[in-house]
Amino acid sequence: MVLPKFSLFYWLLLSSLVILLINYQVNCDDDEKDNLYEGINKYRALLNLKALTRNENADCLADKIADQFKKQPCTNTTGANTVPGTEPQFSNYPDLLSKCHLAITNTRDGNVMPACVPGLVPSLVLTNFTKSLYSDSLNDTQYTGIGIGSEDNWIVVVLTTNTPAGSFAPYSSNGANLTSRFGLIYCSMLFLVGSILLL
Ligand SMILES: *[C@@H]1O[C@H](CO)[C@@H](O)[C@H](O)[C@H]1NC(C)=O
Ligand SMILES: *[C@@H]1O[C@H](CO)[C@@H](O)[C@H](O)[C@H]1NC(C)=O
Ligand SMILES: *[C@@H]1O[C@H](CO)[C@@H](O)[C@H](O)[C@H]1NC(C)=O
Ligand SMILES: *[C@@H]1O[C@H](CO)[C@@H](O)[C@H](O)[C@H]1NC(C)=O
């Protein structure tokens, strides 16, 4: 009876290790986004504006849009230097929305702001939003939420409102959120099962 007990224990140990590693990677990837998030809210605090709260669905959409940009080089016609109205349009935008459980109806009032900064140097990333035309949007009281996504040299900020047309209606069906919750439950179960087996 000893052998099956041990293989179950090691199987649990191995799988939780894998889950912990996945979570670790997710967290590492978030650094430049967290920097920008904090930087933008400090900028808003200086202007006596309320901090923007993180919106998971806007995060998701920002990631999907960054993914569309990632093959494009940084030029003077894309990113923070974009002339309003000449932003690249994506024919598959509705697909990107639906991948994030969103629709045109609850994202229409949102604001998508892509920027390209080689190496995503944190100080340059921040000024590309706070010291460009984008600062007018960051300074706008109608925005209450924010999502940030990045791929390669591209970082995308999506602003949301607290009106139905810009709510980006956050559901709980975010992948990373599920992963971390699953990981937490899994680890607690591991400790339970582990202690029972070791008794
Ligand atoms: C981008 O740069 C090129 C060459 O430097 C210039 O001809 C063009 O007018 C610029 N475009 C914009 C939108 O500034
Ligand atoms: C934005 O980033 C570019 C690098 O892509 C940099 O050259 C430029 O100075 C930045 N602009 C601002 C306003 O910070
Ligand atoms: C932000 O908006 C306020 C009120 O509309 C205005 O007084 C202020 O000058 C703006 N600041 C910047 C940096 O645009
Ligand atoms: C996960 O989603 C739930 C429901 O939307 C939210 O209350 C919670 O704060 C989220 N957790 C994390 C770690 O993002």
TrEMBL record:
Full protein name: Uncharacterized GPI-anchored protein At5g19230-like domain-containing protein
UniProt source species: Flemingia macrophylla
UniProt keyword annotations, A-Z: Signal
Lineage: superkingdom: Eukaryota
UniProt keyword Signal, yes or no: yes
A Pfam family recorded for this sequence: At5g19230
Signal peptide segment: 1-28
Domain Uncharacterized GPI-anchored protein At5g19230-like: 33-159
